[in-house]
Design brief:
There is one protein chain. By secondary structure, the protein is mostly helical. It has one domain. The chain contains nine helices and no strands. It is globular. The relative contact order is 0.22.
């Protein structure tokens, strides 16, 4: 089993470096609200990924993957949430820059990160179709848990690096006019990611 770790790690890195809901949301949030807000969202995303992995381990993922109405409900709910985040990003870019996020807003950032992943078709597809290939037929449940934790750790590291990168260039957006234009651009980016998720997770039943 253990020799599968290296190809699994490489697979996880490739998947996480592919644009998706998490990357789009974290980039926009970190640019607009700063590093602290971004890391708060990463914590929510990490919890969401872990919960999805545990649910998949208990067979919920297989049920969703083989039940058309459940799969499509999660898929469309995720796309709708991304579109709402696009609108919220556009609206946030019209607000003043924060030196530190309002403590009351931290829960909002955490919750959005959590919901983004619970409704993330890309993450669900990973647990349903990719991870089982590394567990094997009749694989050990503990081994599946180990691979889930490895994936969550890799994803969290990639997300944290993205927050650091995005927040580093944040001072360049101090101009309100530039922020509003950039906000519109990032809102369009999230709309594009929503469209990509919709197309890439389409299934012919």
């Amino acid at each position: 089993m253990f020799p599968t770790i290296l190809p699994f790690v490489i697979t996880c890195l490739i998947i996480e470096l592919t644009p998706g809901p998490n990357m789009g949301y974290l980039a926009v949030l970190s640019l607009e609200r700063g590093r602290s807000a971004g890391f708060t969202a990463v914590a929510g995303i990490t919890l969401g990924l872990l919960l999805l992995g545990l649910l998949a381990g208990f067979g919920v993922g297989a049920i969703i993957g083989t039940t058309q109405w459940l799969y499509e409900s999660v898929r469309w709910a995720g796309v709708a949430f991304l579109l709402w985040l696009a609108w919220d990003s556009y609206r946030e870019s019209r607000q003043p820059l924060e030196t530190e996020p309002d403590p009351g807003r931290r829960w909002v950032y955490f919750r959005r990160g959590l919901v983004t992943n619970l409704l993330n078709p890309k993450a669900a597809v990973f647990y349903i179709t990719v991870l089982p290939n590394f567990v094997g037929e009749g694989g050990d449940g503990w081994w599946e848990l180990v691979l889930t934790l490895v994936y969550v750790a890799i994803a969290s590291a990639v997300h944290a690096a993205l927050v650091l990168l995005a927040s580093t260039v944040r001072p360049l957006l101090s101009s309100s006019r530039l922020r509003s234009r950039t906000g519109a651009l990032f809102a369009l980016l999230l709309v594009g990611i929503a469209a990509w998720v919709l197309v890439s997770t389409h299934r012919v039943w």
